[in-house]
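One thing: can you check what follows?
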Amino acid sequence: LLMGYGRVLDKFGPRGALMQTSAFCSAVLSSSAFLIVISQQQGWELFNIPFVKFISGPLFVFRESYVALLTSQYWSFIASTLSPAQSAKWF
């Protein structure tokens, strides 16, 4: 996740990276939600284990790591766009 973020940051800059990674996170969460709903409706299983468990485990790890990255991104973006006077006023 961090390696991908570094590449996106180099290519698009801070504002573009924030937009790209936010869109990526939204796509991952939306597609995971879609897969969970479909797999529950269809009753999909893998080795007698509901398929939802294979989706929700990696999704939890992704969500936790992405929250930390997203928080850092927003703070970094805000810090790079505010002047020192604005920073002192707001933070």
In short: The beta strands are 45-46, 49-50. Residues 79 and 91 are 10 Å apart (CA to CA).
